[in-house]
Amino acid sequence: MSGIWSWFGGGSQKRKDTPKNVILDLRTQLDMLQKREQHLMRQIEEQEQIARKNVNTNKAAAKAALRRKKIHEHNLEQTLNHIATIEQQMNAIETANINQETFLAMQRASEAMKSIHGKLTPEKVEVTMDILQEHNRFNEEISQAMSSIAIGPQVDEGELEEELEALQQQDLEEKMLKTGTVPAQKLPEVANGELKGKAPAVEEDDEEAELRKLQAEMAI
Q1: Looking at the whole model, is its pTM more than 0.85?
Q2: In whole angstroms, what is the distance from residue 146 CA to residue 132 CA?
Q3: Left (φ > 0), alpha (ψ -120 to 50) or beta: where does 111 sit?
Q4: Which residues form a coiled coil (predicted)?
Q5: pLDDT at 2
Q6: Burial of 117 (0-12, 13-18, 19+ CB in 10 A)
């Protein structure tokens, strides 16, 4: 019973009364009371057997056994009350401890949110976003300006156009040689000019041939 009296103030406490330590003490006390419960139940059963054995042969011994049985039953009743009280206290402390830990966790979460937000306001966020967008636009303008800077020797656009036309003409002539056809609508003006220049030469050759034919006939 020393454990009970020490718990209820009969002894000095050497450990700090934290919820964890208190629960450990209660569990130790509960284990002791449960062992006492088992012992008293054995004593009650033993005294009852003695009373039954002597009920007809030795009434004085039977009465003494019953008297001891009553004392054990009274002690058992008190022990069961102590067990119920300690179990109730354990449940109450465990629940209170859970509530306290939950509250402290929520309080820490609140402090963390407060620390994260600090002096943050929707207006400040909007201003910051506007500044970021302005910086992004500025970076875009810088990129465009840098990409427009010509690096290396400058090339005459007129020369490029002439070279491009020459390549187109070369490509067209290669296609004409492969297909054997000359699409008139696709010939450039220069090509048409060259063809027109060759037509009088063909006509002159025909006239020479006809003139020589006449001279031969006259000679006959």
Answers
A1: no
A2: 21
A3: alpha
A4: 23-50
A5: 45
A6: exposed
